[in-house]
Amino acid sequence: MSLSILGQLLVNGLVLGGIYAVIAVGLSLIYGVVGFANFAQGSFLMIGMYFAWGLTKLAGLDPFLWLPVIAVFLLAVGWVFYTCLIDRVIGKPAEVHLFMTVGLMLVLDNAFLLIFTADRKFVQTPYDDITLYFGDISLPLTRLAAFGTAILVAGLLMAFLAATKLGRTIRAVAQDRGLAENLGVDSRRIYAIAVAIGVALAGVAGGLLTSFHPISPEVGLRYLLIAFIVVVVGGMGSIKGSIVAALIVGLLYSFGYQLFGGEGGLILAYLVLLGILNFRPAGLFGKELL
Amino acid sequence: MTRTDVLTMVRPRVQRYTLVVLLAILLVLPLVVPRFYVDMLFQMLWYGALAQAWSLIGGYGKMLSLGHAAFVGIGAYTSTLLFIHFNLSPWLGMLAGGVVAALLSFIVGLACFRLSGAYFAIGTLILTELLRSIFMEFPDLTGGATGVNLPFVRQQPELFMEFVGMEPFYYLVLALALIITFTVDRVRKSDLGLEITALGENELAARSLGVNAVWVKQKVFFLSAFFCGMLGVVHAQYLMVIQVNTYFNALLSVTIALLAFIGGSRTLAGPLLGAIILIPLAQQLQATLGGTYAGGQLIIYGLVVVVISRYCPQGLWPLISETYDGWCSQTKVKPH
Prior knowledge:
A: 72% helix
C-alpha cells in the first residue's frame, strides 16, 4: 500500500469518525444521565435527515445553515419523547426501556417508509462537486464541511457540560442522582433536558450527513448499529470515550473497506467491538461518567 | 370450605378444559378456513414457537437477546446446504440445524455472557449483523441476497419434507410449538428453571448461593437456540427458498423478542398469546395494504409494544390472568 493511499484512507477514516462522533455522543449522553440505551436514536437521525431535505427543498438555502433549525426542532421532539414515554417508565427494568424504544424505532422507521417510500433522496448543494487536493489526497468539500461542523458540535457539547451551570448539574445527576436530588436538583427535569439534547444531537448528525449521504428510511437502523458500536467501544456514558471510539471506528471502517471491500469494513468493526466487549466489557473509557 | 379451596379445585379443571378446546380448534381450523388463512395460521404458530423458545433465555433469564434470528438462519442454511450437497433429508436436517444452532449459541455465549441488560441486547444484535455480513461475503455458498432455491424431489417427496399444500407444514409447526411449550414448562419447573430465574432476578445473589452462572445460561441458551434452528429448517422447507436477508435480519430478531414481551415473557401462555394476537393482525393488514409493502405490520408491532411497555410492562397474559383471578374471587361462594 503506497503512502498516498494510506494518507487517503487515514483522512477518509477520520472524517467519517468525526461524523460518527456526533451520532454517538447523543446516545452516550442519554445512557450516561438517564441510564437506558435508546434504540430509537437512529430514527431521530433519520428524522433530522428528512427534515433537512424538506427544508432545503421547500425553502432552498444550504443544509448547513439549517442545522440550528433542525437542532431546535429535534430538541422539541426529544422533549416530547421524554415526557410522553420515558418519564413514565423511569425506574422500571431495562427490558421496558429496551422494548419501548425498539417499538418507537419500528413505528418511526416504517411510518417514514410509508410516507416517503424507500426511494433515495438527495440534497444538492452548489459546492457538491468541489474537491480539495492535498498532494495526492483528495477531500470533497461537503465532507470537510461536515467534519468541521461535527468537531464544532462535539466541542460545544463538551464545553457546555464542563463550563455551564446546567451542564454541571447534568453531570452531577449522571454521577449520583440521589445526592443531586438532596441538593435540590429536579432530576426529572435534568433527564428531560439530557434526552432532548441527545435527540437533538442525532438530528444534527442527520443534517450533517445529508450533504453527501442519500436519504432513505433504512439509514436509521444502519446508523443505530454504528452508534452502538462506537458507544460500546468508548464506554457507554463517556462523552470523551465516544469521540475517541468514533475516530477509531471510522478508521477501522475506512481501512476494512479498502482491504476486504464491501462488507469487510463492517465485519472488521463488528469483530473489534466483540473483542473489546470481552476484554473490557465497560468499554475503553468505562466508569468515567461524562 | 373456603373460597380459595373451591378456586384451587375448580381452576385446574377449567384450565384443562380450555386447553383441550383450544387444541381441538387449532387441529380443525386449517381444514375449514380458506388457503390464505392457512398461511396466516402457519406464520402465527411459527412465530409463537420462536417467541416461546426465546422466553427461556429472554423471559426467565432476563437476557434480552436480539440475535435469535441468527439461530433460525443457521438452522435453515445447515439443513438446506446438507440437502443440496449431500442429499440429506431435511427431517434429519432439522436435527442437524438444531445442533449447529446450539453450537452457534456457544459462540454467542462466549462473546456475550459477561454482558447484561442493554449491553447483552446490543452484543447479540451486532453478532447477528456480523454473521449477515459474513454470509453475504460468500454468495457462492449462501446465494447472498438472491438466495438458494431448494431442489424439488420427484420420488417420495414426503421423505424430504416436501408436501402438497400447506396443511402438513401447519401440523408440523403445531407439533413443534407443542413440544417447545411442553419443554419450556418442564424446564421452568426444574432446578435449571429455578437457577436461570434466580440469575435473571439477581445474578450476584444467585452466584453467591452456588449457581454456576455461565453453565446455567449456556444450557438454557443451547435449548433455546436448538429449537430456533429446527424452526428455521421448517420455514426454509415451507418457502423452498432461503435468502441471507430473510433470516439474518435484525427485524426478525426484534419481532421474536417483542412478541414474547407483549404476551408476557415470563409466562407459558404469553409468548404464544403475543403471536396469536399480533401475527394475524399484521398479516391481514399487509394483505390489505398490498403485498410489496412490508412496513405496515412493523408499525403495528411498534405501536402495540410502545403501548404495552407504557401501560402494562408485565405483558398481556399476566394482566388477563389477574383479571380472571379477581373476577373469580368476586363470585360468591356460600360458606358452610
